[in-house]
Amino acid sequence: LHSGAPIYKYVGSLGVVAVVLASVSGSTAYDKYTLRYWMGSSRARANNVEPSLPAMGYSNSAALTFTPDTGVDLVRSLGYKGIETGGTVYCVAPILDAAAADVDEVRFWAIGQDCCMPTWGFRCGPVGNPAARSGVVLRKMGSHSSREMYQI
Q1: Beta strands in the chain (DSSP E)
Q2: Burial of 6 (0-12, 13-18, 19+ CB in 10 A)
Q3: Phi/psi at 37 (nearest 5 deg)?
Q4: What are the 10-residue block averages of pLDDT along the chain, 152 residues in total?
Q5: How much is the pLDDT for 47?
Q6: Which of 27, 64, 113, 118 is most buried by a 10 A CB count?
Q7: DSSP label at residue 52
Q8: Residue 64 forms beta bridges with which residues?
Q9: Which pLDDT value is given to residue 6?
Q10: Distance of alpha carbon 107 from its chain centroid, rounded?
Q11: How far is the C-alpha of 90 from the C-alpha of 76, rounded, in Å?
Q12: DSSP SS3 for 43
């Protein structure tokens, strides 16, 4: 047989298609499931975080537990719904303690999707529970993250 035979072209084409499909499905599975697991289990958890301190010190944390005097400021919450969000409302509200409220600077945010009105009314998660003081650090994880929608 010579190398120009049609069977080699079909087998070669099928091989290329198989490699592309395997790469796409493997990348999707990694982004969606495996990466989240490893990022959550391999990073530290920070306790007694004061919202008035710089947030950069906690950028490698998986979860944060705030001090007892910390709360979510529901008055300054905001929702965003635009054409590029596909109908999803992205919600944010500042996490403050007394020191952060005095300087009027926000370093930590409570976020959620479809749990507020387009301009107000943050009700994401257990925000109404006074005992709730913890949260996870949102990180961009692969191509399936919506972190870009929360950036200013």
Answers
A1: 44-49, 61-66, 71-72, 78-80, 90-96, 108-113, 134-136
A2: exposed
A3: -60, -50
A4: 72 94 90 70 81 84 87 87 78 87 82 83 85 76 49 48
A5: 87
A6: 64
A7: T
A8: 46, 135
A9: 81
A10: 16
A11: 14
A12: coil
In this structure, what token pair is assigned to residue 27?
Answer: 């990348």
Extract the tokens encoding 112. 């959620």
Residue in this structure with the two tokens 């989240």, named with its chain if needed: 36
Give 108's strand partners. 95
d(CA 136, CA 138): 6
| pLDDT (0 to 100) of residue 39 | 63
Both tokens of 136, joined, read: 């996870």
Alpha carbons 90 and 119: distance in angstroms, whole number:
10
Look up residue 22 and give its two tokens. Answer: 């395997």
Asked whether the CA dihedral 28, 29, 33, 35 is positive or negative, the reply is negative
Give the chain's largest Cα–Cα span. 83
Question: Based on the number of CB atoms within 10 Å of its own CB, is 113 exposed (0-12), middle (13-18) or buried (19 or more)?
Answer: middle
CB contact set of 72 (below 8 Å; sequence gap of 6+)? 93, 94, 95, 96, 110, 122, 127
Residue owning tokens 């008035």: 52
CB 51 within 8 A of CB 32: no
Map tokens 């994880």 to a residue: 141
Q: Radius of gyration over alpha carbons of the chain, in Å? A: 22
